Amino acid sequence: MNGRRLTRKGVQTRDRIVAVAADLMQQRGVARTTVEDIQEAAGISSSQLYHYFADKGALVAAVIELQGQRVLGVQHLGLDRVTCLADLWRWRDLVVGIRTAQNCVGGCPLGSLAADLAETDAVARAQLARWFAEWERILRTGLASMASAGQFADGTDTDRLALALLAATQGGLLLSQVNRDTAALTAAMDTVITHIGTLLTEAPSDTVRRH
């Protein structure tokens, strides 16, 4: 874009192009998705695409933003009000339920983009890092609210627990894609959440998830 303000129709067209590009890149990978592929799928000309995006890198940046918003929107559904361990289990069920509904096809949209871009595009890597940091912040905020309520023993490093939860979730999502089942995802998330339960001042009845 050249800095001109878009009309409502222009915004809709731009958003449609980004959504189409996001879906193609999720299916094929960034490198294997060409500008021509996106033009064909979106039903637009080359001049239309370059009206909104200076180059493929600008379009990739817009895709990262869209996927970040999509992923974090789902995480907010499960993590906006974390007041006790049961809320973490409900979030776990949300994540696993989504993967089950997807038949474990496709990876985490942010994780897939990171795998494609982290070693080849420093700008994209920094952009993705910001989205992962925001995901971690949501987890930190939830655990911090439990700590503020006196639910954790003194000295508990809730920031480190949040990072462990994020790492467990990402690793589990990747293996669920490879193996086409949720066993690794449930094992990783269950293990970290169960460990969090052992650090509470009063262990609840659902510290260990019953299967």
UniProtKB/TrEMBL annotation:
Keywords: DNA-binding, Transcription, Transcription regulation
Keyword hit for Transcription regulation: yes
InterPro entries xrefs: Homeodomain-like_sf (IPR009057), HTH_TetR (IPR001647), Tet_transcr_reg_TetR-rel_C_sf (IPR036271), TetR_C (IPR011075)
DNA-binding region extent: 34-53
GO MF annotations, alphabetized: DNA binding
HTH tetR-type domain location: 11-71
Protein name: TetR family transcriptional regulator
Organism per entry: Mycolicibacterium aromaticivorans JS19b1 = JCM 16368
